[in-house]
Amino acid sequence: MSAPPAPPVREPAWSVSRSAIWLWVTEGVIGTLVYGALVAVAVLAVPTSAGGPVPVLRWLLPTLVAVYAVVAIGVRPWIRYRVHRWEVTAETVHALTGWLTRTWTLVPVARIQTVDVTRGVLQQMYGLASVAVLTASSQGTVRVPHLEIAVAERVADDLARRAEQVRDEAT
Q1: Three-state SS string across 14-33, please?
Q2: Is residue 90 very low, low, confident or very high in pLDDT (cuts 50, 70, 90)?
Q3: Measured between alpha carbons, how far is residue 82 from residues 12, 33, 49, 72, 117 in Å?
Q4: Per-residue model confidence (pLDDT) at position 1
Q5: Binning pLDDT at 50, 70 and 90, where does residue 76 land?
Q6: Cys staple from 114: which of 27, 120, 134, 161, with CB 3.0 to 4.6 Å?
Q7: Can you tell me the distance from the alpha carbon of 81 to that of 25, in angstroms, rounded to the nearest whole number?
């Protein structure tokens, strides 16, 4: 008799905090300001009488920055919120991240070595934290970005306790 087929992997149940949208919008605004400043310097530094591709670049570069602004501020944060998912089950931790390149990472609780909670500067502004679940494998790290601080601390504490219990049972 053969074993029944394994159930298909399903999408993780939980999305990141809604505050992550505003963090991503802020990152988009910062990126737009940086690119806009670089383009402004480039456009102002090159004389208008320069030939070659310069006349085209004088209108093309600002247009590209405007398109970047629309995508980075108005589109990307909302898509990222819809596609970033995570879940902790009795056996695994898994996360689904990425809006263009999708990355699905699953780590068995028994393989967890370290659980880290980090808070970047912008995350602190929005009351968010990220949880990183590390294993001995360089490919086995699960990162769950942009959770509310209390949720991140609870998840990290729970995972650390469960990983310790699994290690104790194995000895």
Answers
A1: EECCCHHHHHHHHHHHHHHH
A2: confident
A3: 12, 26, 48, 15, 23
A4: 57
A5: very high
A6: 134
A7: 11
Could you give the count of Cα atoms lying within 13 Å of 167 in the half-sphere of its Cβ? 10
Extended strands (E) in the chain: 14-15, 85-88, 92-97, 103-108, 114-118, 128-134, 142-148
- Mean pLDDT, range 58-65, rounded to an integer: 92
What are the structure tokens assigned to 149, written together? 């601080």
User: How many Å apart are CA 114 and CA 2, to the nearest integer?
Assistant: 37
Specify the pLDDT at position 45.
84
CA–CA gap between residue 87 and residue 131 (Å, rounded): 12
Structural contact between residues 168 and 143, judged by C-beta atoms closer than 8 angstroms = no
Q: Using only the alpha carbons of the chain, give its radius of gyration.
A: 22
Q: Which residues contact 100 (CB under 8 A, 6 or more apart)?
A: none
CA distances in angstroms from 162 to 88, 90, 132, 133, 142, listed in the order given: 11, 9, 15, 12, 16
What is the per-residue pLDDT across 1-49, written as a single tens digit (0 to 9) for each? 566 655 556 788 899 999 999 999 999 999 999 999 999 998 888 777 7
What's the N-to-C CA distance of the chain in angstroms? 33
Mean pLDDT of 90-109: 86
Give the integer Cα–Cα distance in Å for 111 and 76: 33
